[in-house]
Amino acid sequence: MADTIRYMHEEHFMVHRDLHWGNWMLLENNDVKLIDFGLAFVLGKNGFAKDYWMPDVFAPPELAREEGSDFVADVWYLACTFYNLVHPNCFGTHSKRVFSIIPGPGNSY
Q1: Is residue 16 assigned to a domain?
Q2: Ranges assigned E (strand) in 18-105
Q3: How many structural domains compose the chain?
Q4: Active-site positions?
């Protein structure tokens, strides 16, 4: 999974922006494929997306702060996906739970 993200970032300068577990397919031969590129964005070598999409509870902190996103957003999504595989109910059903742990005005560690 990490190799897929690395390839997408380094070879195509693309950020997927929606890497939750539902967008990964496990094939019969145990290959893993990434699907659903509906929110994908080509950033270029030094690009930055300024739109503020919020697809689900895995949304990265910079989007919660309305700062836009870059390749780091996919790393956040991948980490959340791995964490969610180990702890299936960790994020609940509402983004408020995730955003409550993000440092920002009124929030701290």
Answers
A1: yes
A2: 24-26, 32-34, 41-42
A3: 1
A4: 18
* Residue 101, domain member (yes or no): no
Q: Which domain holds residue 23?
A: 2-95
Residues whose CB is less than 8 angstroms from the CB of residue 34 and which lie 6 or more positions away in sequence, other chains included: 1, 4, 8, 16, 19, 23, 24, 25
User: Model pTM?
Assistant: 0.67
pLDDT by residue, tens only, the chain of 109 residues: 889 899 988 888 888 888 877 888 988 898 889 999 988 888 866 666 666 565 566 777 777 777 777 888 888 888 888 887 777 676 655 444 554 555 555 444 3
In a domain, 49, yes or no: yes
* Half-sphere exposure (Cβ direction) of 103: Cα atoms closer than 13 Å: 2
Element at 79 (helix H, strand E): helix 72-86
C-alpha distances in Å from residue 40, one per residue of 26, 48, 88: 20, 13, 25
